[in-house]
Amino acid sequence: MDFNVDFGEFLGSVKHRSQANARERDRTLSVNTAFTILRTLIPTEPPDRKLSKIETLRLASSYIQHLTYQLIAEPMDSPCAKLQSKQWTKKDKRSSLCTFCLTNIKKQKLKTANNDYQHETQPILEEPMDLIDQNYLMYSHQ
Asked: Cys-Cys with 80: which of 14, 19, 33, 98 at CB 3.0–4.6 Å?
């Protein structure tokens, strides 16, 4: 029995396994980096939401479809709803509003509500003045 040959083969297989493991670590790092970059390109609600890999792929696909609809449709709040209603029948049970259109509508409603609130709480005068300044101006000319 030649122990040197067996030990040499063992060292060779360990070296190959070590190299294969290093390649797999590099591949995994590359895939994870790509997912991290993709996650930054997809709008989410809330913005800092952590997405799994499958959620990232599904949302990316949905977002690409949403952007395609926006390019095809005339300017509107929810182009996906209009275009999907033409493509899908009732039996398809597709949502008539995509996630991204829904988010845009929610943001628009919040913006409108904030504008309405600011409009209601603005003073009547164009430039805010306190009561002392108003009284001074009113009575200084008498």
From this structure: 98
How many CB atoms within 10 Å of residue 80?
Answer: 24
Would you call 105 exposed, middle or buried from its count of C-beta atoms within 10 A (0-12, 13-18, 19+)? middle
Kindly provide the b/e burial profile for residues 31-69, where b requires at least 16 CB atoms within 10 angstroms of the residue's own CB. eeeeeeebbeebebeeeeeebeeeebeebbeebeebeeb
Q: Which amino acid is at 71?
A: L
14, two tokens: 């360990």
CA dihedral over 127, 130, 132, 134, signed as positive or negative = positive
Domain boundaries, the chain: 1-41, 44-139
List % helix, strand, coil for the chain (3-state, nearest 5). Answer: 75, 0, 25
Residue found under tokens 């209603």: 85
- Consecutive 10-residue averages of pLDDT for the chain (142 residues): 65 89 98 96 87 94 87 67 52 57 71 66 48 50 50
- Is pTM beyond 0.90? Reply is no
